[in-house]
Known about the structure:
Layout: H1 11-14, H2 19-22, E1 24-29, H3 32-43, E2 59-62, E3 67-72, H4 77-82, E4 88-92, H5 93-99, E5 104-108, E6 114-121, E7 134-138, H6 141-150, E8 155-159, H7 166-169, E9 175-180, H8 184-188, E10 191-200, E11 202-206, H9 208-213, H10 215-236, H11 246-256
Parallel strand pairs: 1-3, 1-4, 7-8, 7-9
Antiparallel strand pairs: 2-3, 4-11, 5-11, 6-9, 6-10
Amino acid sequence: MGWVRRLPVTKEERFRPRLADIMLTIALSKGKMLDLTLDVFRRAGYALGNLSTESRRLVFPCPEIGMTFLIVRPTDVPTYVEYGAADVGIVGKDVLMEQDSDVYEPLDLGFGACRIAVAALNGLASRDRLSSKIRVATKYPKVTERYFNQRGMPVEIIKLYGSIELAPLVGLADRIVDLVETGNTLKAHDLVEVECIARSTARLVVNRASLKLKHAAITELITKLRAVSRTSIIQTGKSAPRKSSRGARRAVRRTRR
Length: 257
């Protein structure tokens, strides 16, 4: 067996970053937010190739822009990012509030605005049962429990995965906590909004390790998406909340040093 002579490695090749170090895996929320997300990426200058909301595919490699996109359920986006299956994700603030995932949240993208609200049947909104627990149906049990505990109100939470508006109509619950955009669905079921717990918009989240290992690529992405988001705010005349994770800002400063 003969020896294979290896060509000497040049200095440029030795210090050239590996493809895995610069390729970003991005988890996107399927559903209503996906179209808005893809529009933001395109306006930021990213060619998305055959990525489409009509496709049944879940993985879309885009090597020409150094990205691979994963299309997953919104509730799964923080998990993919937290455990490193994705470097970056885009998901609603409502999901982040419910899950308390260990991820950085450096950017509020401003689109997909809605609110987490408490609602009750029309005419019963001001009636609280102080002598017993209030039954609340929701798909946000953690957010709901925190809200009512802070108000000192005993609550029994009923976890539902859909058709939350039906619960008060059939006597399953006294209140519901659900995501509200226009309020038309509440009105259609004779429900009124009692209180707004929190407002939600699309957020960009980043894996802790990826922020350090792929700092240049992630910083470039954040910069481009932020510029597009600000342009949209100026054009619509709306101001999106500018809250971001203090931990994310500190981490970005540390990685720049």
